Amino acid sequence: MAERTLSIIKPDAVARGLIGEILRKFEAAGLKIVAAKLVHLTPERARAFYAVHEQRPFFASLTEYMSSGPILVSVLERKGAIMKNREIMGATDPAKASPGTIRREWGKDVEKNAVHGSDGAETAASEIAFFFKPNEIHSS
Ligand code: UDP
Ligand code: MG
């Protein structure tokens, strides 16, 4: 059965006009966009989304950045969607990401790294539910 993952195009990538280029990468990798919307997170909502990182030194800066402007949240679907999306995103630090990956092409630094992607089945389910109601997701 097809698997689902949550993707976020982060604020600076949206501001730089990269939504189309990044969505193209998803579709080229067979990741079907089954839900999508622009969202401007409040600082509180950004902190809730990244609650798992609450104790990390980058938490305050990350959540400030993620609430600094609109993001494009989407649900991507295909067999093995979670790992496929992580593969085309590339490593967290764009400087260490493989050539051709989204973060290597468009990430600015380890924080402003263009995209978020769920890292496992449980986080995918909870992150999708964080942004979308079941009837906002349109599988074929
Ligand atoms: N991040 C950061 N500094 C770091 C590590 C991570 O600012 O040293 C930010 C970065 O935006 C990253 C997010 O925190 O995408 C979540 O970190 P995680 O380790 O989960 O990386 P990811 O799963 O996004 O590759
Ligand atoms: Mg992560």
In words, what does this structure look like?
- The chain has helices spanning 11-15, 19-28, 43-49, 59-66, 81-89, 102-106, 121-131; strands at 3-9, 32-39, 71-78, 115-117.
- The model has no long low-confidence stretch (mean pLDDT 98).
- The protein has one domain: Alpha-Beta Plaits.
- It is built from seven helices and four strands; from the N terminus they run βααβααβααβα.
- It is globular.
- The relative contact order is 0.25.
- The longest helix has 11 residues, at 121-131.
- The protein starts with a strand and ends in a 9-residue tail after the last helix.
- It has a four-stranded antiparallel β-sheet.
- It is of the alpha+beta class and 140 residues long.
- The protein binds uridine-5'-diphosphate and magnesium ion (MG).
Number of helices: 7
The CATH class designation is Alpha Beta
The helix/strand order is EHHEHHEHHEH
Proportion of β residues? 15-25%
Write a brief caption for the model.
The chain is an alpha+beta fold. The chain is built from seven helices and four strands, in the order βααβααβααβα.
